[in-house]
Design goal:
By secondary structure, the chain is of the alpha/beta class. The protein has one domain: Glycoside hydrolase/deacetylase (TIM Barrel, Alpha-Beta Barrel). The chain has 12 helices and 7 strands. Strands 1, 2, 3, 4, 5, 6 and 7 form a 7-stranded parallel β-sheet that branches. The radius of gyration is 19 Å and the shape is globular. The relative contact order is 0.18. The N terminus is likely disordered. Keywords: Signal.
Length: 308
């Protein structure tokens, strides 16, 4: 009887996910970046206004709250007060810096302590080492650690072009710093087209494998271009049939969330959902063929952006 009830519940969830096809959560990583061509607080305020204008019900902000100053705390309050989900991404964790289990645990606890005052923080954790090709002993210890302390999984789906927006912003900032002109209309179109292209290809692959479109995340860098262009990006995604949903709904979905499949979730649900090999790009950078493709794409749209 219990098994039949469980199967019926799972069938209901799968049917519900399929019925609400092409659902998308917007997530931001590398949050709380310092001032660049935009003042950091002005950037955050613009981003909040534009997310509201684009009817984003709730975005996900992956936070590494190292060295918070008063402006950073104000920005966190702003995100929290606007109803967005704050996620513990470790205190200053980096995959480039090797550490041991104790160091990772301390980092998670330090970030947790700094985020607890904000209502938008619900003890969700997005800690990349939990899902990387790392030391299995450390990963197992981390899973036991976070489960005992009541942390909740947050995750992002794999996107081959994750980090493209960081590269575009890097090129943009370099032009602005040298007082060189930038065609913002063309840059906006390039930004939108590159990000939509990657998500569309990913969704088509998922649909072919699964027979439906699972809820997905689009991870953006919290930078100047996101603040400027997020409305145009969401308008294009909506026009292509994507429905924006809340981050909380995504992380609470028992099928979408890898908590259901693997006892704890982390960086990417993509291999869990599709059964494909876990070959995602760990860092938001472009190398080799990926960079060559993006450079060619930019060259055909805004040739001057690549000039040094």
């Amino acid at each position: 009887m219990i098994k039949r009830c469980l199967l019926a519940s799972l069938l209901f969830v799968v049917t519900s996910l399929a019925a609400n096809a092409r659902e998308l959560v917007i997530a931001f990583e590398n949050s709380l970046q310092p001032s660049t061509s935009l003042d950091a607080m002005a950037r955050s305020q613009m981003l909040m206004r534009n997310l509201a204008m684009a009817d984003i019900p709730q975005a996900m902000f992956l936070i590494k709250p190292r060295a918070l100053d008063s402006k950073d705390r104000s920005r966190l309050r702003l995100y929290s007060d606007r109803g967005h989900l704050l996620v513990n991404a470790g205190y200053d964790h980096s995959l480039v810096t090797k550490g041991d289990l104790y160091a990772y645990e301390v980092g998670i606890l330090k970030a947790n302590r700094l985020l607890l005052p904000y209502p938008g923080y619900k003890k969700h954790l997005h800690f990349s080492y939990l899902h990387e090709q790392g030391d299995n002993r450390i990963q197992r210890g981390l899973i036991d650690f976070v489960k005992k302390r009541g942390y909740r999984p947050a995750f992002t789906t794999f996107n081959e072009w994750r980090g493209v927006d960081a590269y575009l912003d890097q090129l943009y900032q370099a032009r602005i710093k040298r007082n060189r002109p930038v065609d913002m209309a063309k840059l906006e179109r390039t930004y939108v087209d590159l990000l939509v292209k990657g998500l569309t290809e990913q969704d088509a692959l998922a649909f072919n494998l699964l027979g439906y479109s699972p809820p997905q995340t689009l991870v953006l860098q919290e930078n100047d271009l996101a603040a400027y262009f997020v409305v145009a990006l969401i308008d294009e995604l909506t026009a292509q049939g994507w429905q924006m949903t809340s981050a909380q709904r995504l992380v609470d979905a028992p099928i979408a969330n890898p908590l259901f499949a693997s006892s704890w979730g982390a960086n990417s649900v993509w291999p869990v959902v599709t059964g494909l090999p876990d070959s995602r790009v760990a860092y938001p950078r472009l190398l080799g063929e990926r960079k060559a493709y993006v450079d060619n794409f930019i060259q055909g749209r805004i040739p001057g952006l690549l000039e040094h």
